[in-house]
Design brief:
The protein is built from 3 helices and 11 strands. By secondary structure, it is of the alpha+beta class. The chain has one domain. The longest helix has 18 residues, at 67-84.
């Protein structure tokens, strides 16, 4: 991900010298020799499509006409943040379009379940379990991300929706859950890591990690949105052509299936 400029904001940003990176549109590893065709397709989708993934927006012009509106917007965001505090989870296994394609040109599906925790000071913890099948019966990998959310102002999709950037500036951990995925990681991500083993997590934070396109000294970031309605927390729906949320232009324009309170 190309470096981007962020407004000077919360104190946690001060002194950080990591840059932000765009999630890579990874073109896939040649893993077919190491795994069965069915599982390999699921693994490739995992390597091609990484979720996860948010805070200060630019200051509005300080004039008497817009000052009350600005204060109102800030109050609304504060209410959203207070209401979001706590634990959230997927209703059921979910599906996303990935950047990988089938032989007929259609996009390969990416199956996952999410658990999310929103904490004070705009901190978040996200866990994603990727599976090879739509029912989550064959989990492939667990991804845990920790960081901060940058609130960037209203999003036009719905009243109260907010543009949010997710920045993994605290932690990023990957755990293979099947031997086939561990074998793939041992082929394509061995430098700088211990041998990958099933149910053994390793931190990729701040390191080069080829399968997800991460570069050393960088933080993963996505341009997303949040919309809170009662006990349902919506993020942005993935772009139907498989593009990641790697630029402001690729920020989602529709709502994803919601998380519910845990």
């Amino acid at each position: 991900m190309a470096s981007i400029a962020l407004a000077v904001g919360p104190a946690w940003q001060a002194g950080r010298n990591r840059t932000l990176i765009r999630p890579a549109r990874y073109e896939g590893q040649r893993v077919d020799p190491y795994w069965s065709v069915f599982m390999c397709n699921g693994i490739k989708a995992s390597l091609l499509f990484l979720l996860v993934m948010t805070g200060c927006s630019g200051a509005a012009a300080q004039s008497p006409s817009n000052q009350p509106r600005t204060s109102g917007m800030e109050a609304d965001v504060t209410k959203i943040k207070d209401a979001m505090l706590g634990n959230w989870e997927s209703i059921a296994p979910e599906v996303r379009p990935s950047a990988a394609k089938n032989a007929d040109g259609s996009l390969k599906p990416f199956y996952l379940k999410r658990t999310f925790k929103y904490l004070p000071s705009d901190r978040f913890e996200l866990e994603i379990v990727n599976s090879a099948d739509p029912y989550g019966a064959v989990p492939l990998a667990r991804i845990k991300i920790g960081g901060h959310m940058l609130w960037q102002g209203p999003h036009p999709i719905a009243p109260g929706a907010q543009k949010v950037d997710f920045v993994a500036d605290e932690s990023y951990e990957v755990t293979p859950l099947v031997q086939g995925f561990a074998d793939v990681l041992n082929k394509v991500a061995s430098d700088g890591y211990s041998a990958w083993a099933v149910n053994t997590p390793q931190s990729v934070f701040g390191k080069s990690f080829v399968p997800f396109g991460l570069k050393a000294g960088t933080n993963f970031m996505e341009y997303d949105l949040v919309f809170l309605r009662g006990d349902m927390l919506f993020w942005g729906a993935r772009n139907i052509d498989g593009r990641g949320f790697d630029t402001e232009q690729n920020r989602p324009t529709n709502l994803q299936i919601p998380l519910i309170r845990k």
